[in-house]
């Protein structure tokens, strides 16, 4: 039985086909911009290349397809996740709307996502996630691409309750995470964060962490996520978005909720809040700031605004 892997690729079909000069122009554009063409209707491709719609259809048939629709379906294979936002917008005709309408609709969509995230919580998975965070010898947070911002916020919360927690992100990119994860051992926990569109580096590094014996807590959008299958524990944030690949507000809400559950289970949420307040107090706006913050050399030398500057002594008359 033939499978998708038995089918020749678009590039192979083009290499084997006998093409007219017009068809060759289309083929060159397809080979140079496969992802762009995968999102194009036939009239747009024909216009860009400078041929007729009929010629574009004949090009698809020359490659062995019934027509352009089947050609485009074959081209889209492998690009489904990357093209999802494009196809979503293409499928919804634009309607006149004010900026306020879009803001209101997006806020409603976000609230719906958060509610679906709440409804989908699994009690056992939540308990295991919190226990894994508090019981781990070391906690590593892996988030690349747009997820690095979410990872940073999670770090900011968890470092109040975990003795050793580290963000696997730096200017070096994935190589920094790979170098740190090389030291991962059983007893460590890796919290991997990935939402559409998934970065292959996140999946590769998560797989390596599992192979090293570490537990993996995945924060992702559904059980069908490629990250979920690599995890020992998974929590899901529903992220439907009209204009983007994912609604990051619901992802952030899940992180906020998870951090709150960790704070509660630690038994030291009040103590941690007091320690944090004391640490940052000198840098907070208010009358107390100047009295508590260590003064710099410049502060000690600069004259006070309320103290008049000394001018030159007046000459004495003779």
Automatic annotation (TrEMBL):
HTH rpiR-type domain boundaries: 6-82
Q: Which organism is it from?
A: Chelatococcus sambhunathii
Mind telling me what this protein is named? Transcriptional regulator, RpiR family
Look up the domain of life of the source.
Bacteria
Question: Is this entry keyworded Transferase?
Answer: no
Concerning InterPro entries, the annotation shows:
Homeodomain-like_sf, HTH_RpiR, RpiR-like, RpiR-like_SIS, SIS_dom, SIS_dom_sf, WH-like_DNA-bd_sf
Annotated PROSITE patterns: HTH_RPIR, SIS
A Pfam family this protein belongs to?
Answer: HTH_6
Start and end of every SIS domain? 129-260
From the UniProt entry, list the residue stretches annotated as the region Disordered: 292-318
- What Gene3D superfamilies does its record include? Glucose-6-phosphate isomerase like protein, domain 1, Winged helix-like DNA-binding domain superfamily/Winged helix DNA-binding domain
Q: Which UniProt keywords apply?
A: DNA-binding, Transcription, Transcription regulation
């Amino acid at each position: 039985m033939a499978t998708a892997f038995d089918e020749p690729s678009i590039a192979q079909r083009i290499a084997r086909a006998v093409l007219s000069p017009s068809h060759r122009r289309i083929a060159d554009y397809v080979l140079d911009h496969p992802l762009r063409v995968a999102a194009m209707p036939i009239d747009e491709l024909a216009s860009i290349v400078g041929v007729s719609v009929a010629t574009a259809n004949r090009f698809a048939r020359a490659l062995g397809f019934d027509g352009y629709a089947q050609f485009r379906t074959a081209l889209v294979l492998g690009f489904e996740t990357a093209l999802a936002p494009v196809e979503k917008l293409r499928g919804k005709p634009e309607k006149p709307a004010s900026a306020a309408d879009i803001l209101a609709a997006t806020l409603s969509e976000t609230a719906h996502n958060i509610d679906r995230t709440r409804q989908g919580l699994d009690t056992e998975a939540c308990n295991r996630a919190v226990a894994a965070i508090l019981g781990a010898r070391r906690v590593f947070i892996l988030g690349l691409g747009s997820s690095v911002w979410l990872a940073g916020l999670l770090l900011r919360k968890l470092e109040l309750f975990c003795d050793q927690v580290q963000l696997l992100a730096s200017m070096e990119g994935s190589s920094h995470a790979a170098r740190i994860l090389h030291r991962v051992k059983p007893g460590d926990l890796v919290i991997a964060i990935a939402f559409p569109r998934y970065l292959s580096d996140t999946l590769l590094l998560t797989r390596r962490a599992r192979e090293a014996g570490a537990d993996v807590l995945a924060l992702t959008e559904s059980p069908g996520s490629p990250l979920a299958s690599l995890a020992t524990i998974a929590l899901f944030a529903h992220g439907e978005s009209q204009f983007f690949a994912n609604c990051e507000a619901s992802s952030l809400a899940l992180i906020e909720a998870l951090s709150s559950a960790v704070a509660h289970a630690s038994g030291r949420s009040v103590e941690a809040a007091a320690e944090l307040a004391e640490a940052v107090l000198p840098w907070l706006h208010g009358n107390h700031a100047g009295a508590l913050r260590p003064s710099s050399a410049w502060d000690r030398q600069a004259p006070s605004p309320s103290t008049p500057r000394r001018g030159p002594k007046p000459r004495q008359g003779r």
